[in-house]
Q: What sequence folds into this?
């Protein structure tokens, strides 16, 4: 599915909601975090360039509020020779990842460029995870209500599914498992949280997200 398909067959969304106070918080936090983390982001960019050359950023079209597509930015985790139309998920043993990419995936530091998406208004600090166009068809049966809210850098599902790559059973098709198990689980959590969210509760998830990224948090041990 491409951007034109999404535009023509966009899931029906009742409306979008964010608020002036929350938008002001997004701008302040994104600007402050961007300045504080600029040296780290520069270091990551230089390391990626030395390891594999340009580009150091990865841009992909994602679904925003109201199912409006936007370009989301991340630090590149995959080799520059990786198939751009490959698997739409990142696995633990993904051969497309570089050495630095594996570190970025484990720490979630690859997502720091999304501070720019927050600053420009396509994303929020706290919101549902922006979904790729490959899974746009999952927003049905009530799950399209998730698209009422601006997608976020942090939030309940981002924290709870931080080690998502560890959840995939080796014997199952990962795309099918995501569509039938992980996506519905995320949508259920989002629809339970966002209709009742407050700025105070968002701040709690910001702190939990910061702790998950910069604190000590190990992935669950593999069974068997």
A:
């Amino acid at each position: 599915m491409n951007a034109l398909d999404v535009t023509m067959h966009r899931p029906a969304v009742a409306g979008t909601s964010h608020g002036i106070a929350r938008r002001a918080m997004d701008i302040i936090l994104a600007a402050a975090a961007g300045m504080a983390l600029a040296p780290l982001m520069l270091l990551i960019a230089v390391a990626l360039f030395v390891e594999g050359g340009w580009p150091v950023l990865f841009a992909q079209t994602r679904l925003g509020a109201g199912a409006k597509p936007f370009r989301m930015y991340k630090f590149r985790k995959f080799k520059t020779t990786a198939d751009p139309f490959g698997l739409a998920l990142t696995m633990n043993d993904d051969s497309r990842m570089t050495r630095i990419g594996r570190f970025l995936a484990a720490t979630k530091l690859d997502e720091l460029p999304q501070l720019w998406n927050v600053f420009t208004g396509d994303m929020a600090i706290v919101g549902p995870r922006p979904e790729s166009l490959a899974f746009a068809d999952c927003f049905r049966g009530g799950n399209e209500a998730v698209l009422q809210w601006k997608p976020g850098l942090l939030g309940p599902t981002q924290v709870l599914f931080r080690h998502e790559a560890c959840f995939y059973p080796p014997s199952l098709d990962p795309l099918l498992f995501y569509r039938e198990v992980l996506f519905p689980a995320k949508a259920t959590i989002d629809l339970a949280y966002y209709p009742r969210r407050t700025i105070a509760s968002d701040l709690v998830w910001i702190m939990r997200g910061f702790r998950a990224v910069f604190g000590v948090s190990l992935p669950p041990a593999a069974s068997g």
